[in-house]
């Protein structure tokens, strides 16, 4: 089992990054590959090594929390690694875990690849298995997932701060927002907005 990799970021695609670890290039599929594009020097990527009959795949995450939630999600019947990756691309671990505890089908069914039956199965299978994610805090609603009524402006504000932390300037982010805002809806999460913005920033 490969639990993490530390190496040089060398290549980026829409679904994965390539990490050079002592001269070996590892292809690592990520929820948001573009989040790694701004890093220079060595980076650490938490991984899940997935083995099946016809392939061995590495899935990578920026945080240990994402890695842990990914492993919980793929235990649910009907959720494979690619769907679990899409869930993490569509919502933060805080939001996904909160939605499970609160049995928020509206939020869960907006995640990529998740229909009503799968959302119900997620709740049934995982609600009692997420103690390591701060169950008491999530259950109280202190980290409420974004609702349909929530304005997209607040989500962009949060995404913008995250992008600034990656080193992007106010001017760069203003230009991206001008292109991005016409397609933004109230259902778009912070992670989704960051991914779209990073794609625009990376491609120019």
What's this, in brief?
Pfam families: HHH_5, RuvA_C, RuvA_N. The protein contains 9 helices and 5 strands, in the order βββββααααααααα.
Polypeptide structure, described:
Residues 148-204 are annotated as: Domain III. It comes from Paenibacillus xylanivorans. Belongs to the RuvA family. 43% of the residues lie in helices and 19% in strands. The chain is globular and about 45 Å long. The protein folds into 3 domains: 4-61, OB fold (Dihydrolipoamide Acetyltransferase, E2P) (Beta Barrel), CATH 2.40.50.140; 66-139, DNA polymerase, domain 1 (Orthogonal Bundle); 152-203, Helicase, Ruva Protein, domain 3, CATH 1.10.8. With 204 residues, it is an alpha+beta fold. The protein has helices spanning 64-73, 81-90, 93-101, 105-108, 116-126, 135-139, 152-165, 170-180, 190-203; strands spanning 4-12, 16-21, 24-29, 42-52, 55-61. A hairpin with a 2-residue loop joins strand 4 (42-52) and strand 5. The protein has a 5-stranded mixed β-barrel with strand order 1-2-3-5-4.
Descriptors:
9 helices, 204 residues, Helicase, Ruva Protein, domain 3, 43% helix, 5-stranded mixed barrel, single chain, RuvA_C, OB fold (Dihydrolipoamide Acetyltransferase, E2P), globular, 3 domains, DNA polymerase, domain 1, alpha+beta
Unreliable stretches covering 5 or more consecutive residues: 147-152
> Which strand order does the major sheet show?
1-2-3-5-4
The CATH topology of the largest domain is given as DNA polymerase, domain 1
Rg from alpha-carbon coordinates: 17 Å
Secondary-structure element sequence?
EEEEEHHHHHHHHH
CATH class of the largest domain: Mainly Alpha
Average pLDDT metric: 83
Architecture per CATH nomenclature, i.e. the level-2 architecture of the largest domain:
Orthogonal Bundle
Give the helix/strand class. alpha+beta
Beta-strand portion reads 15-25%
Fraction of helical residues:
40-55%
Number of strands: 5
Amino-to-carboxy terminus distance? 37 Å
Number of separate helices: 9
CATH superfamily of the largest domain: 5' to 3' exonuclease, C-terminal subdomain
Largest sheet: 5 strands, mixed, barrel
Our count of domains comes out at 3
């Amino acid at each position: 089992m490969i639990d993490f990799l530390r190496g040089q970021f060398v290549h980026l695609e829409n679904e994965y990054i390539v990490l050079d670890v002592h001269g070996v290039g590892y292809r690592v599929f990520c929820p948001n590959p573009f989040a790694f594009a701004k890093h220079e020097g060595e980076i650490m990527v938490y991984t899940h090594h997935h083995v099946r009959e016809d392939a061995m795949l590495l899935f990578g995450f920026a945080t240990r929390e994402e890695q842990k939630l990914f492993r919980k999600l793929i235990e649910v019947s009907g959720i494979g690694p690619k769907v679990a990756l899409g869930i993490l691309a569509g919502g933060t671990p805080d939001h996904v875990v909160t939605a499970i505890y609160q049995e928020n089908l509206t939020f869960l069914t907006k995640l990529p690849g998740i229909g009503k039956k799968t959302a119900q199965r997620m709740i049934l299978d995982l609600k009692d298995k997420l103690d390591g994610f701060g169950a008491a805090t999530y259950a109280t609603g202190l980290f409420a997932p974004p609702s349909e009524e929530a304005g997209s402006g607040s989500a962009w504000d949060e995404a913008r701060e995250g992008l600034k932390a990656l080193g992007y300037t106010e001017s760069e982010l203003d230009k991206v927002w001008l292109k991005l805002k016409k397609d933004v809806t109230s259902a778009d999460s912070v992670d989704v907005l960051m991914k779209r913005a990073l794609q625009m920033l990376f491609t120019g």
